[in-house]
Structure to design on (150 residues):
């Protein structure tokens, strides 16, 4: 079943359950998919890779908003953002642990022969491609920097 079909099924269930937070998160996914389809100029489905990027972007937006709200002591606004992020994350593949990401990054560094920070772009390019949808870009970047500076 495609992401769009999954979202529509979940959307209907959320409407029946009157789950406002889930409904809002699912509508954001649906809107993002429709925008991506119109950008490409076709009514065809977007690729799985584009779907993953879209979902990651939506989760990141929610988490960034929640962080800003927390800085401003607005827990009442931060919590719904985190709840929506959790709903959207259900559609992402299982996220790798930091140790698993670290191991993958070490493998990539060994493969590329990277020796310092000057090779960060090359390592990040490969790591982002291999770990797409399975790890957050910020976490990947942090681990790559740590490994290359050792």
């Amino acid at each position: 079943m495609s992401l769009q079909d999954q979202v529509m099924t979940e959307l209907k269930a959320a409407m029946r359950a009157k789950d406002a937070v889930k409904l809002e998160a699912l509508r954001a996914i649906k809107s993002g998919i429709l925008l991506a389809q119109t950008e490409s100029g076709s009514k065809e489905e977007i690729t799985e890779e584009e779907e993953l990027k879209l979902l990651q972007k939506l989760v990141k937006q929610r988490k960034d908003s929640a962080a800003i709200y927390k800085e401003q002591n607005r827990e009442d606004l931060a919590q719904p953002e985190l709840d929506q992020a959790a709903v959207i994350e259900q559609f992402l593949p299982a996220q790798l642990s930091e140790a698993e990401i670290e191991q993958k990054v070490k493998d990539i560094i060994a493969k590329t022969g990277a020796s310092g920070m000057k090779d960060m772009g090359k390592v990040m390019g490969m790591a982002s491609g291999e770990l797409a949808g399975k790890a957050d870009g910020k976490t990947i970047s942090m681990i790559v920097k740590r490994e290359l500076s050792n």
Remarks:
- Residues 48-71 form the longest helix (24 residues).
